[in-house]
Write a structure and sequence with these properties.
The chain contains nine helices and 13 strands. The chain has a seven-stranded mixed sheet. Helix 1 (37-49) crosses helix 9, helix 2 (75-87) packs parallel to helix 3 and helix 8 packs across helix 9. The chain has helices spanning 37-49, 75-87, 138-144, 167-175, 180-186, 199-205, 210-216, 225-233, 237-275, and strands at residues 2-7, 14-20, 24-30, 65-69, 91-93, 98-100, 106-108, 110-117, 125-130, 134-136, 148-150, 155-157, 207-208.
Length: 277
């Protein structure tokens, strides 16, 4: 994993481009979201999405992934970020915290505690745990903009969100596809103390937005794990060819959906790319 960071003004968010050989380029947003960060974010996303030389990856569906690790901040800026993410059908993820190593490469930040695995296999032994990413308040609003949303490992916090009387935020949550009940739960009276969402609450907010699910339903069905094995191991070449053709048709359909999303945000992103950070 390698990364190149762009720092904004003091106390503003930082944007770090991570490159992964399996999942392509990813944009990490870390630190508080402050005034002007939506424009700076758009500029970084422009460099990521409009790059004509995206690396070859095993999973082309994950080219535009935005990782979030932020305590929150400016709600309005976060909603602008979320809307741009949804328009571009980007994936949002809250997983682990990254830190720059001595060699300048960004990697998972090790925790103080350790995890020990028993057995005789190569994974047996004790290892440093990894610090979980935290995304609260305004960051949660940006995360909700993802067309695919993941928060299996990281923490989502509702503290820092306005109450239910904020019409702009309520309208944004409806725009992002949240139910009235889910919106009310997030914007209920919040105490000054931290309010981290439970695993069931995080799972209820994660998933795929209709903006991506609807076009995906028109794609050929993705191969199951067994079908993937059969596509290379089945003794009948006709079976292998049929499965490989379906896998390629599914991949081509997914790429066409992403290309359409890229076109949808092209003018917005090109404007930011032209003006610079």
């Amino acid at each position: 994993m390698v990364g190149l960071g762009l720092a904004g003004p003091a106390l503003a968010a930082q944007f770090i481009v991570l490159e992964d050989e399996c999942r392509g380029k990813q944009l990490l947003v870390t630190g508080p979201i402050e005034e002007g960060d939506a424009d700076r974010f758009a500029n970084q996303l422009a460099a990521l999405v409009l790059d004509p030389e995206l690396p070859a990856v095993q999973d082309p569906e994950m080219l535009w992934t935005v990782k979030l690790d932020s305590p929150g901040g400016d709600v309005g800026e976060a909603m602008q970020i979320g809307r741009l993410l949804r328009k571009g059908l980007a994936t949002t993820e809250v997983s682990y915290r990254y830190a720059k190593r001595a060699d300048g490469v960004y990697d998972f930040q090790p925790a103080d505690d350790t995890i020990c695995l028993e057995g005789d296999g190569r994974l047996a032994g004790c290892f440093a745990d990894i610090v979980k990413a935290e995304c609260a308040g305004a960051c949660l609003l940006a995360w909700l903009g993802g067309a695919d949303r993941y928060a299996h490992e990281g923490m989502l916090g509702a503290h820092g969100l306005p109450d239910s009387g904020d019409e702009q935020v309520r309208a944004y949550l409806v725009e992002m596809g949240l139910s009235a009940g889910a919106s009310a739960a997030l914007l209920g009276p919040q105490s000054a103390a931290e309010h981290w969402l439970s695993w069931p609450e995080r799972s209820a907010l994660a998933g795929r937005a209709a903006a991506l699910q609807a076009p995906l339903e028109s794609c050929p069905e993705r191969l199951s794990q067994q079908e993937s094995l059969d596509s290379v191991m089945d003794p009948d070449p006709a079976v292998r060819d049929r499965l490989m053709d379906r896998a390629e048709a599914h991949r081509a359909c997914r790429l066409a959906i992403l290309a359409k999303a890229q076109d949808a945000v092209r003018s917005d992103l090109q404007a930011h790319a032209a003006t610079g950070p």
